[in-house]
Amino acid sequence: MNENVFRVNCYFTLKFISDKTMLMKRNLTLLVFILSINCIYAQSPEQNLKSLGIILPPTSAPIANYVKYVRTGNLIYFSGTGPSKSDGSLIKGKLGKDLNIEEGVEAARITGINLIASIKNAVGDLSKVKKIVKVLGMVNCTENFVDQPKVINGFSDLMVSVFGEKGKHARSAVGMNSLPMNMAVEIEMIIEVEDDL
After folding, report:
1. How far is CA 86 from the centre of its chain?
2. Mean pLDDT over residues 112-127, rounded?
3. How many domains does the chain have?
4. What is the pTM of this model?
5. Which end of the chain has less Cβ packing within 10 Å, N or C?
6. In the prediction, which pLDDT does 100 show?
7. Residue 155 belongs to a domain with what CATH number?
8. Domain that holds residue 77
9. What is the pLDDT of residue 41?
10. Is residue 19 domain-shared with residue 62, that is, in the same domain?
């Protein structure tokens, strides 16, 4: 009797271990499959730009006595940049008076494209960007305009579309009484890059 109970206990113990092992193998197989799919479908920032139909413009020279960016350690600080279109003209005007929110969003997006071009000029390969760290978005607006964050979302949404999780950043979006040359927005940022630059 005791021997039969022992055999039954051994059988159920071995079956339990076997079932657990099989479950672990299935979970491991599923995990490998999911990671493989992510690797297949993960795109580089360059591929994301192509998917979005964005062609980076050539970077322009600074308009005064400063440089476009400064690197210290693994951080690169980018000077304030405006919404310069492909023909070299700026999107100008005050939000709340000359421009509506949608036009402001587009100005911020174009500024983002210009800053990505500056990043590429600084690092060569956009995949070397480890993190968009901090953004300061300045909006040329009337004193009663309060939707600066909506305007600068044009920039922030683009960073996430191009860089994915690395594009999510800390941010300030503020109103300005005026900006140089009456540009609609001006944005500066700090990024972190990989060690091997």
Report:
1. 22
2. 96
3. 2
4. 0.78
5. N
6. 97
7. 3.30.1330.40
8. 48-193
9. 46
10. no
